[in-house]
Input
Amino acid sequence: MTLLADFGSPRQEALRQIAREEEAAERRRLLYVALTRAQYRLVLHLPEGLGQQSPLAALLGGGGKDFSWRVALEGLTAAAGDAVAVVPLDDHAEAPRWTGNTASEKVRAASFTRHLQMGWRVGSFTALSSGGRGERPDYDDTIPAPDPLSGPGPVTFPRGAQAGICLHSILQRWNPQRGEEDLLVHIDGALQRYGFSAQWRQDLRQWLPAVAATPLWQDGPALAEIPRAARLAEWEFTFPVSRLDPLALAAHLQAAGLPWAGSEETLRGYLRGFVDLLFVHEGRYYLVDYKSNDLGPLEAYGANGLAAAMGAGGYHLQYLLYTLAVQRFLRSRLPEYDYESHFGGVYYLFLRGMSPQHRPGWGIYATRPSAALLADLERMMEGRS
Output
């Protein structure tokens, strides 16, 4: 719908008439909807002074100067037979009145004995890990800041949730195969949208192409080499959860050697999340999550530093939940889906440590959950264990 403002054109009066006709049509539509909701009986009170231009008059006979309520109602009852009756109200009849409770005993409020299931809700990784109610995409706002004595990091771009949103926004929209011009359009838009100075334009112009040019694994593709048709960015999912007990969940993770400590509240309802990137390469599907966390100096983006960051952020649970969602999605799309054959793995990209100039694998945490662990988690969420 387009809204127009007329400040005195020659067609102003004609446009006013069109607006009046559209308003009258909308009022008739609303009246029709109200009148047709009743299933067994409709009682309609027509007050004195109801205008000839009212929506009801238009429905009964079109309104206008020659419209008569008496003629219109007589015609309605004649056409409808016993289905419609017009009954004049007696102005002197006394309306029934409530006389109150005449019993001598005191009135008491009823006791509430029903047990409410307060745990039913839409949960998320953020809610499970921090006890909050967030359902938004996770943008790295819970990871602790690096030790200030550990030295500067490889990238000076600001850290925090707002910086994470800015970077995710660029990576979600940018097509590396379109060249630098496409990148600069998204950089400029994101910096302005999220309140960052344009001075960061040059830093991002150099940093993000380096991220996109870093191979994800040995002899594997870089982000820049993944065709647009083979990737699904910011994929949102929601699936039902019969019962997710945090104690049982913690036990499963600890048995698998995965640290986690989060919410103590049982989840019943639905689980919702956002996968930053899902792509297919040589027939296998890969899950990617961008992390803008500032871990400290470059050495912190090696295997040991990334393992510590994954544990501190509770990201093991995150990728298990996201992998389970991707598996459900692929089952519904691939008739012969097989986890071992079709799922390639999970890649957490710690953006500040990625560059083709760094050691292979720096800034990239790669894993592939076992099919048995995923099956246990799925059974637990479906209330079967």
